[in-house]
Amino acid sequence: xxxxxxxxxxxxxxxxxxxxxxxxxxxxxxxxxxxxxxxxxxxxxxxxxxxxxxxxxxxxxxxxxxxxxxxxxxxxxxxxxxxxxxxxxxxxxxxxxxxxxxxxxxxxxxxxxxxxxxxxxxxxxxxxxxxxxxxxxxxxxxxxxxxxxxxxxxxxxxxxxxxxxxxxxxxxxxxxxxxxxxxxxxxxxxxxxxxxxxxxxxxxxxxxxxxxxxxxxxxxxxxxxxxxxxxxxxxxxxxxxxxxxxxxxxxxxxxxxxxxxxxxxxxxxxxxxxxxxxxxxxxxxxxxxxxxxxxxxxxxxxxxxxxxxxxxxxxx
Length: 316
Prior knowledge:
Elements: H1 3-27, E1 43-44, E2 48-49, H2 57-77, H3 91-110, H4 118-121, H5 125-138, H6 140-143, H7 167-176, E3 178-182, H8 186-193, H9 197-208, H10 219-231, H11 233-236, H12 262-271, E4 273-277, H13 281-300
Antiparallel strand pairs: 1-2, 3-4
Helix pairs in contact: 1-2, 5-13, 7-13, 9-10
């Protein structure tokens, strides 16, 4: 806080408290010429009279005591601008102290799960409940309370993983985050194939995602394949299966994070997409990240009934 703001706070606080003192003093005395308390000339229903009597002295003294307490409070806890107060107390120090206590409590709660593999934690009901709670507090904002995602946010309950669904890959995603970038290809494609180039690529992408459909019977898709092979194949692969190493999605399944309508695909191709999964290593720490990763992994890898262990499912 700057010096000018500090003095502003000091003057404002002192003005309010001293103003209350003056107001109480000014209104607590009767002066020559004041009408008697019963001579207000305010009557209702002929026999109801309004009086103007001063407050009882004990009540006024109570106000003065409250004001004195206010001055003492500001001097003790430091309410005068940058003045730290006689007690040395600060909300920041109290928060840090409370945080230290609760961090120790949390550390004790999570200690049994330190360093445990994700698939092992996924078989522990207590660990899963902890992971579910962490997910609800941290991840549900984007992925939804049911973890089924939304437009632009992936569904975590299916078996489709753009960055890999193995336990260690899911943990890496939670700890260090992911950044998926789909470049803007509108101008490049238009320069290669004319004004309808984007529509050609959209047609081919739709063919990739439709089992049994061939480009041989679709002129636009056939033109789009040529453009796809020249631009898109580097990330999405020759067969459109994608590349988990760079987060390039599989174009042959029926899952579209941004929608599969022509308008949505056009926006994706022309303007690109930039999706960011924030890193949670510093926010949650490694153990809590393991617990929430185990919960997320368990959503698409439920343990078999009666199984005592779990075998990680191969990343799709």
